[in-house]
Amino acid sequence: MQENNQNCVDVTELLASDSYIAVNRLLIRELGLEEAVMLAELLDERKYWRSTNRLDDGWFFSTQKNIEDRVGLSKHKQLRAIDNLESRGLIKTEVRGMPARRHIAISDNRIVQLFKNWTTSCRKIEQPVVQKSDSKNTNNKNTNKNNNKVEVQRTYDVFIEKFGKNPNQYKLTDKRRKLIARRLDDAGVEIVLKAIENTASNSFYTGDNDRGWSADLDFILRSYEQVERLSQLKPRQTTKNDDDFDLAKYLINK
User: Among 167, 172, 251, 169, which Cα is nearest to 215's?
Assistant: First the structure.
């Protein structure tokens, strides 16, 4: 029995060490688990930078590898969580310095406001009305649909601009809208836009190849794996043989 008690003490001390982060239940409910974990980790990182007097007017850099090592979020999940946090105004991101690094600033005011709104809404709840709840859910769904339409249009506009296409000729059809929406859903806005920009900056994909072929939006958004690969593409980095192989595979399956 004494040994068991000693083990309990050891385990308690272990769990009470620095190897944990505080994830608030409200944030999990309001933002989602991965977003709440990401925000908690960023707050913890900011605390460290502040303790070493290395905050740059509230900004600090945070690497994908460090976050993955600390909380287990993959690159894809990190990008999606950061995109969602940024869309809520809880954080801001910028690429700064040489070498370029992702810097983040956290909005304490928006986080406090999130808690105030939640507290206020709890006080107002007296007699739940099914009809009002349904109306609220409908409004939320409509808001999400409107936001999705905006992001779809934005993605299309970026492609038109980067590739110099004529929108009257290369139209945003229903099929393309659905394709864009799928990729935004599984890859996130940041990765999709990065894939478009990188593809446009690589001369092979804009006509500098034996076929005189140029990538289009359907090619870029063909699959999540395609978007992720193109989002990491460097200007004319890949070899011609690799590009020819990818292009041939696409044309065969087209």
Answer: 251
Q: Position 189: which residue type?
A: V
| Residue 170 buriedness (CB in 10 A; 0-12 / 13-18 / 19+) | middle
Adjacent-strand bridge partners of 214: 206
243 vs 129: CA distance, rounded Å? 59
The DSSP symbol for 188 reads -
pLDDT over threshold 70, residue 49: yes
Tens digit of each residue's pLDDT (9 = 90 or more) over 168-220: 999 999 999 999 999 988 888 899 999 999 989 988 888 888 888 888 999 99
Give the phi and the psi of residue 95 in degrees, each rounded to 5: -100, 120
> 37 with 67: CB under 8 angstroms?
no
Q: Using the 8-state DSSP alphabet, how is residue 205 labeled?
A: G
Task: Determine the pLDDT at residue 31.
Answer: 87
In a 3-state reduction of DSSP, which class is residue 17? Answer: coil
Which residue in the block uniquely carries the two structure tokens 């193109």? 230
Cα–Cα distance for residue pair 227/219, rounded to 1 Å:
9
> Could you give the 3-state DSSP secondary structure of residue 1?
coil
What's the rounded Cα separation, in Å, for the pair 184 and 94?
21
Cβ–Cβ < 8 Å for 45, 21 = no
Strand, helix or coil at 163?
A: helix
Query: Rounded to an integer, what distance in angstroms lies between the CA atom of residue 37 and that of residue 31?
Result: 10
Residue recorded with tokens 């992720």:
228
Which residues 6+ apart lie within 8 Å of 68 measured at CB?
74, 75, 78
